[in-house]
Design a protein that fits this description.
By secondary structure, the chain is mostly helical. The chain has 2 domains: 55 residues, Orthogonal Bundle (Arc Repressor Mutant, subunit A); 148 residues, Tetracycline Repressor, domain 2, CATH 1.10.357. The protein has 11 helices and no strands. The longest helix has 24 residues. It is elongated and about 55 Å long. The chain starts with 17 loop residues before the first helix and ends with a helix.
Length: 233
C-alpha cells in the first residue's frame, strides 16, 4: 500500500500536498509581514492565516528568519521579472524604462495598500539577521545594476554613477511616500530622475512629447504676424 504525505510532508495524511502548504504559508507571510510589520507578526499568526499547524510551518521553514528570507526572495523575484519585462520592450527608450519604475512607485504609493519598500522595512527592524540583510542588499544592487544598464544603453558617460544616483532617488521615493502617506515624494523623485537623465543626454519619448505639447500650445497662444497686420487700421 502506498504511503501518503501530510501537508507538511510527514506520513499518514492526504489533506494537502506539501508544495501547496508551502505556497500558502508564503502567501500568508507576505500579506502579514508587509501589512503589519515583520517584528509584529509571529509564526503562530502566519500558520493560522495559512491554515496549517506550526509544526507544518517549521517543516518548510526551519526558523522565522528562514521564512522572512523566503518572503523577501519572492518579492525580489517579482521585481526582477518586472524589470526583465521592461527591458524586453524594444519600443521603449532606456530613459522611458527608467522613468517607468518611478511611475510605478507613484501609482503604488497612491493606494491604501502601500506600506513602503519591503526590503527597506526589513532592514530597518533591528532584530533582522545577516541572511535577511544580505537579501535586501542583493536586491538593491540588482536594481542599481539595472538602472546602470539602461543608462549605458541610453549613452550615459558614467552609467554606474547615474545608476547609483537613481537608486538613491528611488529609495527616497519609497521611504518618503511611506512616511508622508502621499505619492508626492515619488512624484518629486521622478522629476529629479528626469532631470538627471536629461543631464546625462539620455532620451525620453515622454519628455519629447511634453515639449512638443508645450511648443504647440505656445504657438497657438501667440497671434501670427499676418493676424497682427490684418487688424491694423
Amino acid at each position: 500500500m502506498a504511503k501518503t504525505t501530510s501537508r507538511g510532508g510527514t506520513l499518514g495524511s492526504t489533506r494537502r500536498p506539501p508544495n501547496e502548504a508551502r505556497a500558502n504559508i508564503l502567501t500568508a507571510a507576505e500579506r502579514l509581514f508587509y501589512n503589519e510589520g515583520i517584528g509584529a507578526v509571529g509564526v503562530d499568526a502566519v500558520a493560522e492565516a495559512a491554515g496549517v499547524t506550526k509544526r507544518t510551518l517549521y517543516y518548510h521553514f526551519a526558523s522565522k528568519e528562514d521564512l522572512i528570507a523566503a518572503y523577501l526572495d519572492a518579492r525580489d523575484e517579482t521585481t526582477l521579472n518586472a524589470l526583465r519585462t521592461a527591458s524586453s520592450d524594444a519600443a521603449a527608450q532606456p530613459g522611458d524604462r527608467i522613468l517607468g519604475v518611478f511611475d510605478f512607485v507613484q501609482r503604488w504609493a497612491a493606494t491604501t495598500d502601500y506600506h513602503g519598500c519591503p526590503f527597506n522595512n526589513a532592514v530597518a527592524e533591528q532584530s533582522m539577521g545577516p541572511k535577511v540583510t544580505a537579501i535586501a542588499r542583493r536586491h538593491k544592487d540588482t536594481v542599481k545594476s539595472w538602472f546602470s544598464q539602461q543608462a549605458a544603453e541610453g549613452g550615459a558617460h558614467d552609467p554606474d554613477a547615474l545608476g547609483a544616483q537613481l537608486l538613491v532617488l528611488l529609495d527616497g521615493a519609497l521611504n518618503g511616500a511611506a512616511v508622508s502617506g502621499s505619492p508626492e515624494a515619488a512624484a518629486v523623485a521622478r522629476t529629479m530622475a528626469e532631470t538627471a537623465l536629461e543631464a546625462a543626454g539620455i532620451a525620453c519619448a515622454s519628455r519629447s512629447m511634453q515639449r512638443k505639447r508645450r511648443t504647440h500650445k505656445g504657438e497657438g497662444s501667440r497671434p501670427s504676424g499676418k493676424s497682427k497686420l490684418g487688424t491694423r487700421q
